[in-house]
Amino acid sequence: MSIDLENRQALRQSMRSLLSEAREDDAREPSMGTRHPFFRPVSILVSEGCRMSAFSRDLSPQGIGLMHHMPLPLEEVEIRIATGRGYYVKVRTMITSCRPCGEACYVSRGHFMSIPVVSDV
Predict the structure, then answer these.
(1) Please, what is the Cα angle at 92 between 90 and 93, to 5 degrees?
(2) Which of 66, 74, 107, 111 is nearest to 93 (CA)?
(3) Distance between CA 64 and CA 92 in Å, rounded?
(4) Residue 119 parent element (H or E)
(5) According to the model, what pLDDT value does residue 8 have?
(6) Are 112 and 90 in contact (CB under 8 A)?
(7) Taken in order 10, 12, 14, 20, is the CA torsion positive or negative?
(8) For strand 36-37 and strand 51-59, is the pairing parallel, antiparallel, or unpaired?
(9) Which of 1, 24, 56, 114 has the highest local Cβ count within 10 Å?
(10) CB-based contacts of 65: which residues, under 8 Å, 6+ apart?
């Protein structure tokens, strides 16, 4: 099934609008170098000893973008990133921003504060 010309133009316009919004969101967040798409399950240990599940969005040598269901405090946390090879990478991370993104969803950005440690748990 093919999209007719009028619908194709409407689709292009809608996508341009979404891409423009994404660029504006990126401009608002502090630069942490080149970010690469990186979708993995992560575990976040906050100061009260509470652990929450999340997903990474992107990764750079300086930090990580996260998506989760509860707001995160703007403080240092431990992030445990699952690898595809059965081990984890743990790294202390300062959460620098956290904002709502849709219904019961939040996006945040963290700046790495320590050298990552490889762990099997």
Answers:
(1) 120
(2) 111
(3) 11
(4) strand 117-119
(5) 74
(6) no
(7) negative
(8) antiparallel
(9) 56
(10) 35, 56, 57, 58, 59, 107, 108, 109, 110
Nearest CA-CA partner of 62 in 88, 108, 94, 26: 94
Taking the C-alpha atoms of residue 41 and residue 56, their distance in angstroms, rounded to an integer, is 6
Mean pLDDT of the chain: 86
b/e code 68-96 from CB counts within 10 Å (16+ = b): beeebeeeebbbbbeeeeeebebbbbebe
**DSSP line for 32-91:** -S--EE---EEEEE-TTS-EEEEEEEEE-SSEEEEEESS---SSEEEEEEE-TTS-EEEE
Structure tokens at 91: 């790294």
The number of angstroms, rounded, from the C-alpha of 106 to the middle of its chain's C-alpha atoms is: 9
What does the pLDDT look like over 42-93, one tens digit per residue?
999 997 789 999 999 999 999 999 999 999 999 999 999 988 888 999 999 9
Q: Cα 111–42–119 angle (5° rounding)?
A: 90
DSSP assignment of 85-110 equals TS-EEEEEEEEEEEEE-STT-EEEEE
